[in-house]
Write a structure and sequence with these properties.
The protein contains 16 helices and no strands. It is mostly helical. It has one domain.
C-alpha cells in the first residue's frame, strides 16, 4: 500500500518530487515570451515530466513511483472537483441560447465523431480514441485528464491525446484571428466570440483567439468555453455508464454495475456553490486562492502523467492519433462555423 507505515515516507517523497517539477513548470509559464503564446503551466508540466521520463527516470528510487501515480490519479480527481469554482450557472445564462446550442452541438458531435472515426476508421484502441475525442470536444488537456480515470487508461495514452489536442489547439489559436481579420468569416465580434468558445480546444487558447479581435469577442468566447467545460460532468457520467456496460457485456454477463465518476458530480456541486458566492466580494479572495491551488494540482497531475510517458510509447501510438485530431480540428473549424451561424440566426448573439 502506498500509504502504509512502511511506504508512506517514499510515497510522500514521490509527491514532493512531482510538486517541485510543478513549481518549475509554473515559473516557466510566467516567462514573458511563453506567456505571450498563452502556453499554460499544464502543458509545460507534461513536457518537463516527459523530459524526466526519458532522461533521469532510472536515477530516481522506484519506491517513489507510488507518489507519482497518486499525483496523476487521486490528486487529479480532487483538482477536477475544484475546477468547478471557475464556473457559474450565471455565465451560461449570460451567453444565451446561441452559445449553449453551439457548445452542446459541437461537444456532442465532436465526441461521437472522434470515438467512431478513431475506432472504426483509424483502427485505434478505444481509450486513445475516446481521450483524443474528449480533449478536442471539451477543453483540451484538462478534459483528457478528467476522462482518463473513467476509462482507467494507461498514462501514455493520455499523453498522446494531450499532445494532439495541444498541437491543433495552438494552430487554431493563430488561425481563427487571421481568418476573422481577413474577412473570410463574415462575423461580428460577438458571433466570432461564440464561434471561438464553441470550437477552440484549451481555455488559454480561447482567451488568446478571442482577445486578438476585441474584448467583446473575448468575453463571449470565455463564457461559451466555460459552458463547454461544465458539460464535462454529464459527459463523464454517461461515459462511465457506457464503459461499465461495455466491460460487463464483453465478459458475457447480463447485468452490469454502473460506475459513476463521482468527482464529476462534485464538480457540478462546486460550480453551484460558486454560483451563489460569485456576488459576495468578501469571498472572492478565497475563490481566487482555490483557483490558484487548483492550477497547481492540475499541473501536478499533468507533470506526473508526463513522468509516466516515454518516447517509446509515443512511437507505439504512431501517426493515427494525430490524424484523428486533425480531422476533428477541421470539423470544429468548418462545422463549428456553420453551427454558430445557424444558432446566432435562430437565437441571436
Amino acid at each position: 500500500m502506498a500509504f502504509s507505515k512502511a511506504n508512506i515516507k517514499y510515497t510522500l517523497n514521490g509527491i514532493l518530487f512531482v510538486a517541485l517539477f510543478t513549481i518549475a513548470a509554473i515559473q516557466i509559464s510566467q516567462v514573458s515570451f511563453i506567456k505571450a503564446l498563452a502556453i499554460s503551466p499544464l502543458i509545460i508540466g507534461i513536457v518537463i515530466g516527459m523530459f524526466y521520463a526519458n532522461t533521469l527516470r532510472s536515477h530516481i528510487p522506484k519506491e517513489w513511483v507510488p507518489g507519482i501515480v497518486f499525483s496523476s490519479k487521486q490528486l487529479l480527481r480532487f483538482a477536477i472537483i475544484l475546477y468547478g469554482f471557475r464556473i457559474t450557472f450565471q455565465q451560461i445564462a449570460e451567453v444565451g441560447l446561441a452559445g449553449l446550442t453551439v457548445s452542446t452541438v459541437m461537444l456532442t458531435t465532436t465526441f461521437i465523431l472522434g470515438w467512431w472515426l478513431g475506432v472504426k476508421f483509424f483502427g485505434l484502441d478505444r481509450d486513445t480514441a475516446v481521450l483524443t475525442a474528449s480533449g478536442s470536444s471539451v477543453c483540451g488537456a484538462a478534459a483528457v485528464l478528467a476522462t482518463e480515470p473513467v476509462l482507467n487508461a494507461e498514462p501514455y495514452k493520455s499523453a498522446v491525446a494531450v499532445g494532439t489536442v495541444v498541437l491543433f489547439g495552438t494552430i487554431a489559436m493563430f488561425t481563427y484571428p487571421a481568418l476573422y481579420k481577413s474577412g473570410i468569416l463574415h462575423m461580428d465580434p460577438a458571433t466570432y466570440g461564440i464561434y471561438v468558445g464553441g470550437t477552440v480546444h484549451e481555455v488559454a487558447q480561447v482567451v488568446a483567439a478571442g482577445g486578438a479581435v476585441s474584448e467583446v469577442a473575448m468575453n463571449n468566447a470565455v463564457i461559451v468555453k466555460m459552458t463547454r467545460v461544465m458539460m464535462i460532468a454529464p459527459l463523464l457520467i454517461i461515459l462511465g455508464i457506457l464503459v461499465s456496460k461495455g466491460t460487463t457485456a464483453a465478459a458475457g454477463e447480463k447485468k452490469f454495475k454502473i460506475t459513476i465518476p463521482w468527482f464529476a458530480v462534485w464538480f457540478i456541486v462546486m460550480a453551484g456553490i460558486n454560483s451563489f458566492l460569485i456576488n459576495i466580494p468578501s469571498i472572492q479572495p478565497a475563490i481566487h486562492a482555490i483557483n490558484e491551488l487548483d492550477t497547481f494540482l492540475l499541473t501536478m497531475a499533468m507533470t506526473a502523467l508526463g513522468m509516466e510517458t516515454s518516447v517509446e510509447k509515443f512511437k507505439q501510438a504512431g501517426a493515427k492519433p494525430v490524424a484523428l485530431a486533425a480531422v476533428l480540428a477541421v470539423w470544429l473549424m468548418v462545422g463549428g462555423y456553420f453551427v454558430t451561424k445557424w444558432a446566432v440566426a435562430l437565437f441571436g448573439a
